[in-house]
């Protein structure tokens, strides 16, 4: 090696040694998150990457679909479910890292109508949901698999309304798909999370389902077993911090107090 080449090699080594530690440790974190968190997670992604130097890769879908992907070995680092049930399932199968699970968010379910100025509705045991639909469909996420649909069906059942409108339900793969059916006018009404309703200017929240008519809406988060890294630990800590809180509250979520 010539003297010039040796000097260049030494210079390259010194330059690498002087790089900021955050760049040297930069890593990627893959998060599987419920579709109802779409807007909030876009904000969380920007804030986390700016704060940590790590890359955040977010995969959004119905909690049931994400849980099944994790069961099949999908390389998720963190799972945020829209209900405890799917997290319970993964935990019982040893797929959740022990001691990393915590309740992150709360939400509410609402009845939405197509358009920006639909009249308000009194939601209760005596309401005529079938008459309200007037031959149209009620858009919901899958009522036996997706949390938003599960909560919606539970509420309608509790209020004595389910049997009268079950045949009129248009089931979608996830809550955002149900929102789209109403926003485009394919269905006159739908049941979604309160946070989803704010994502479209083409729907009106016409009523909120009583909290006591369905199980508490809780979003648990946890690390997937075997996916331990400094970047993942940093993200889980970030989720509990003020930056993430701001992102979630901006979208209407209620951050669980610890």
TrEMBL record:
The species this protein was found in: Roseovarius halotolerans
Keyword Signal: yes
Residues that bind molybdate: 36, 63, 148, 175, 193
Domain of life of the organism encoding this protein: Bacteria
Phylogenetic lineage: Bacteria, Pseudomonadati, Pseudomonadota, Alphaproteobacteria, Rhodobacterales
Assembly and oligomerization: The complex is composed of two ATP-binding proteins (ModC), two transmembrane proteins (ModB) and a solute-binding protein (ModA).
GO MF annotation: an example: metal ion binding
GO biological process: molybdate ion transport
Gene: modA
Signal sequence annotation: 1-26
Record GO cellular component, one term: outer membrane-bounded periplasmic space
Name of protein: Molybdate-binding periplasmic protein
Keywords annotated in UniProt: Metal-binding, Molybdenum, Signal
Pfam families cross-referenced by the UniProt entry: SBP_bac_11
Family per similarity comment: Belongs to the bacterial solute-binding protein ModA family.
